[in-house]
Structure to design on (469 residues):
């Protein structure tokens, strides 16, 4: 591995920001009205990434289990909130947020811990230089699966209310009546990771692998890491989406085999 | 076998009592929006509700909700369908029973192969009635069983309901049509302001 890692200067970043300015100029010229959101988003990228860079630097220097765990917990809580942000139907009483956050915490920490203690084995196993980026990748994707799965389940059960209740009225068990919709929600939740695994290398070079190659890592080594990450993400997404969808389906029913769509908060 | 409901409470409904015996055809009328459908749904235990319910002396609370609903069956005004073809909706009955029931309702067994998406309103009404009675409920609760049907099909549906009642099925049906209530019902009750009044026996 003799490749060189080219250090970027802040001036280099200013050069590439000219493309952003071009996009902003086009937006103003064509009256698209996107320049403001584009500007804010770009600013957020810079501020958020610079801040996280500083946090990671400090975190990596200290290598403390407590601080790493705290950072991990904050990430998981934020992921739970993010998973809820674009849900069209939410369960009353914070149940949606609770289910999403719990599924993310369980799936994310089980998969990440297992990978750290068995496959990657840094010393110590919680070394934040490994734990935090890994958890970030896993959470980012699991969040997607959980959010899409829950959103799809809510939307489908609302749309298919008559079909579900027709079965209940005929004396079918609630689990049987909702099973097709649970399955559909799971499929929707896992779609993006299945696509990502199928397209990996052929259509898209995954971001992490690209980053490693740019940073000078031998491509065959980068590939091994990418496969590891893909499998972790797939495992965690499946686990998280399954927990979230099943918990939500349970919350939308009760022990008298009813469909409880009244547990959604009022529709906006 | 008698369905007995005491002190039913659900939102603005009740407390109210109602009884439906085998062979009864009880017509439930009342202004729209008074909760006639809610009342049927509450008896079927499809919504949270309170009260004492029993069928032939057996308390609803002692059995599972699906077991109760198989005996005290609710057929909503707008039927729901969960498969593309008609046949899967008859899950739980033997093919012989299904075909007998279809014949009784004036349908051929080829109806099982029909696409749900292409059913007419009349076919939907009859098939959703068929998939219910084929499971052998003791009490059938019908919500507007002839809504959307023309006079001819409406009359057919009424005579089918009467036949089943003569065989011992207890029927409680909701209608907005006073003439139909008088024609089909052996008992008339009215729901107003959350309370029931027996109009005639």
């Amino acid at each position: 591995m003799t490749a060189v890692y080219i250090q970027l200067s802040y001036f280099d970043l200013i050069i590439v920001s000219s493309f952003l300015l071009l996009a902003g100029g086009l937006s103003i010229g064509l009256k698209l009205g996107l320049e403001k959101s584009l500007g804010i988003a770009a600013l957020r990228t810079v501020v958020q990434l610079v801040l996280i860079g500083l946090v990671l630097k400090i975190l990596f220097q200290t290598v403390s289990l407590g601080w790493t765990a705290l950072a991990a917990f904050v990430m998981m809580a934020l992921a739970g909130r993010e998973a809820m942000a674009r849900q069209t139907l939410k369960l009353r009483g914070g149940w949606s947020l609770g289910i999403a956050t719990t599924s993310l915490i369980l799936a994310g920490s089980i998969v990440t811990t297992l990978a750290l203690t068995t496959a990657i084995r840094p010393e110590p196993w919680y070394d934040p230089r490994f734990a935090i980026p890994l958890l970030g990748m896993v959470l980012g994707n699991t969040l997607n699966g959980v959010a899409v799965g829950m959103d799809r389940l809510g939307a489908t059960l609302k749309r298919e209310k008559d079909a579900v209740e027709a079965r209940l009225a005929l004396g079918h068990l609630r689990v049987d009546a909702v099973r097709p919709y649970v399955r559909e929600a799971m499929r929707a939740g896992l779609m993006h990771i299945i696509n990502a695994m199928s397209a990996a290398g052929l259509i898209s070079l995954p971001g992490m692998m690209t980053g490693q190659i740019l940073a000078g890592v031998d491509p065959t080594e980068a590939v091994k890491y990418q496969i590891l990450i893909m499998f972790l993400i797939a495992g965690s997404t499946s686990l998280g989406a399954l927990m979230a969808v099943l918990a939500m389906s349970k919350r939308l029913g009760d022990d008298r085999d009813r469909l409880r769509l009244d547990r959604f908060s009022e529709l906006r | 076998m008698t369905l007995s409901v005491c002190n039913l409470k659900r939102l603005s409904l009740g407390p109210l009592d109602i009884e439906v015996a085998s062979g009864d055809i009880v017509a439930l009328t009342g202004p729209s929006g008074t909760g006639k459908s809610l009342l049927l749904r509450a008896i079927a235990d499809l919504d949270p509700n309170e009260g004492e319910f029993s069928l032939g002396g057996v308390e609803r609370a002692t059995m599972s909700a699906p077991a109760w609903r198989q005996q005290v069956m609710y057929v909503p005004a707008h039927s729901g369908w969960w498969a593309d073809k008609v046949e899967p909706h008859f899950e739980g009955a033997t093919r012989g029973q299904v075909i007998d029931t279809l014949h009784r309702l004036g349908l051929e067994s080829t109806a099982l192969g029909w696409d749900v998406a292409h059913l007419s309103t009349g076919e939907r009404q009859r098939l959703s009635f068929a998939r219910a009675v084929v499971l052998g409920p003791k009490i059938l609760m019908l919500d507007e069983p002839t809504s959307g049907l023309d006079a001819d099909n409406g009359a057919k549906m009424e005579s089918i309901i009467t036949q089943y009642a003569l065989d011992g099925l207890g029927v409680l049906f909701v209608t907005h049509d006073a003439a139909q209530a008088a024609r089909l019902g052996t008992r008339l009750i009215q729901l107003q302001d959350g309370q029931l009044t027996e109009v005639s026996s």
Chain A touches chain B at residues 160-173, 177, 180, 254, 256-259 (CB under 8 Å). Residues 219-251 of chain A form the longest helix (33 residues). DSSP finds nine helices and no strands in chain A.
